[in-house]
Amino acid sequence: MADETTQETEQEQIGKTAGAFAGMFAGARIGAAIPIPLVGPFVGSVAGAVLGGEAGKRVARAAVVGARAFSDALKQRPAESGEPA
Questions:
Q1: Measured between alpha carbons, how far is 32 from 12 in angstroms, rounded to an integer?
Q2: DSSP designation for 84
Q3: Sign of the four-CA dihedral 40, 42, 43, 47
Q4: How far apart are CA 65 and CA 72, in angstroms?
Q5: Cα atoms in the 13 Å half-sphere on the side-chain side of 36
Q6: Which 8-state DSSP code applies to residue 36?
Q7: For every one of its 85 residues, what pLDDT tens digit does the chain have, with 9 covering 90 and above?
Q8: Is the pTM of this model over 0.85?
Q9: Exposure string (b/e) for 41-76, b if CB count within 10 Å is 16 or more?
Q10: What is the C-alpha separation between 10 and 12, in angstroms, rounded?
Q11: Could you tell me the residue ranges of all domains in the chain?
């Protein structure tokens, strides 16, 4: 159980970091619309990093669970239906 908790924490941390970077870049791009030099991209990148980090925590967990289910499905042997393996 402790191992599962550690894995979930690691997944959340990876997702948070990836989401923060993606949000930072997207926010800086959107923030560039603010006509004050350097302020717009800075404010946008900070807001994007916060929002992206929170979204990344949730998305990472779902992505890992989905990828694991997909991998497990590929590893299963086909049912005996007469189809070639």
A1: 29
A2: -
A3: positive
A4: 11
A5: 5
A6: S
A7: 567 778 778 878 888 888 899 999 999 999 888 888 889 999 999 999 999 988 888 888 788 788 888 888 888 876 655 555 5
A8: no
A9: bebbbebbbebbbebbbebbbeebeeeeeeeeeeee
A10: 5
A11: 8-74
